[in-house]
């Protein structure tokens, strides 16, 4: 009896976790540069006497869908889309270098280049980028920022860092939504990486596919709950038969 209980209990838990991941993805279908989260599960046997035939579902290391989102043309000078597998480098709240595909940039009141979340955009040297006051900024395809103030000649004020992770070492998403390397070390600047200015990358979440997945997860959860109810009914029936035979 307890085998079916373990099966249905862990199955329901896995379905609930999957629905949570899908709901998070759907909520970020409109977030610039968002990467859809994936979740996988594996069976793990229970430890202890008499538990060798019982298993429970354990969430394995979750990853993300590393495919680009749709290109959205804006024409805005400080909007940028990283091309290929490149990422923008920003400074997280912990002061460490992190990575994002969100290329909506602006100048903070302190005169630094930041993204739409207020995180400092880092230069190819690893530091913040200062923008001259009352200047017009243009962004080149290699990440070079050029400032023109009044009638003065344009001058380069920095270069946005574009980093490309190795093929065999995917980035890890943090609780703040930013990505970092597995060992926490910053990636080098990729001299060959390019960006598209005047455009931003949309979320790569497929809303329709995600909603279908949520419905399937909800049905799976209901199935596991019915299985628990069936186990309870069978237990009551068996008890009644034993009492009659006694």
From TrEMBL:
Localization in the cell: Bacterial flagellum basal body
Q: What is this protein called?
A: Flagellar basal-body rod protein FlgF
Tell whether Repeat is among the UniProt keywords: no
The question of whether Cytoplasm is a record keyword is answered with no
Annotated source species: Chryseobacterium sp. B5
Locate the Flagellar hook protein FlgE/F/G-like D1 domain: which residues? Answer: 84-147
The record's Gene Ontology cellular component field reads:
bacterial-type flagellum basal body, rod
| Pfam families in the record | Flg_bb_rod (PF00460), Flg_bbr_C (PF06429), LlgE_F_G_D1 (PF22692)
List UniProt keywords, sorted A-Z. Answer: Bacterial flagellum, Cell projection, Cilium, Flagellum
Gene Ontology terms: biological process: bacterial-type flagellum-dependent swarming motility
User: Which protein family is named in the record?
Assistant: Belongs to the flagella basal body rod proteins family.
Domain Flagellar basal body rod protein N-terminal stretches: 5-35
Q: What is its main location?
A: other
Against SUPFAM superfamilies, the record matches this protein to: Flagellar hook protein flgE
> Which residues does the UniProt record annotate as the domain Flagellar basal-body/hook protein C-terminal?
197-241
- TM region positions: none
Organism lineage reads as: Bacteria, Pseudomonadati, Bacteroidota, Flavobacteriia, Flavobacteriales
Q: Which domain of life is it from?
A: Bacteria
InterPro entries according to UniProt = Flag_bb_rod_N, Flagellar_FlgE/F/G, Flg_bb/hook_C_dom, FlgE/F/G-like, LlgE_F_G-like_D1
UniProt subunit comment: The basal body constitutes a major portion of the flagellar organelle and consists of five rings (E,L,P,S, and M) mounted on a central rod. The rod consists of about 26 subunits of FlgG in the distal portion, and FlgB, FlgC and FlgF are thought to build up the proximal portion of the rod with about 6 subunits each.
